[in-house]
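=== RUN LOG ===
request id: a7f3
mode: sequence -> structure
chains: 1
length: 108
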Amino acid sequence: MEPIVDWDISIRLAANDIKHAKEYLNLLKNDIVFQKDNIKQLLKDNNTKLACDELHMLLGILSYSGALRLKSATKSLYHALLHQHDFKKEFDNFETELNCLVEYIDGC
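=== RESULT ===
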C-alpha cells in the first residue's frame, strides 16, 4: 500500500524544501475538509456536474501535494460520477482517504 504522503514527491514539488512541503500540506488540509463537505452536499442535492467540477479542481491541487492515495481516490470518484456509475463505494473511499490525510497532517 502506498504511503499517505509520498514525501519524496512532496518535497521535490516544494523546491526541495521540507518546511515548504509541510506548509503546503497544512494549507491543503484546511481546504480539503471544506471541499469534502461541499462535494458531499452537492451529491446529496444530486448536482453531479458541480461535484465533478469540484473534484476536478481538487485533483489539480492534489497533483502538487504528494498525497497519492487521496489523489487516486478522488480520481476514482470523479470518473464514477463522470460516467454516471454508482459512486457510493468511491465516495466512501474518498472520504476515508481524506480523513486519513487530515489525521496524518495533524500528526506531522
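=== NOTES ===
The first helix runs from residue 7 to 13.
Residues 81 and 93 are 14 Å apart (CA to CA).
=== END ===
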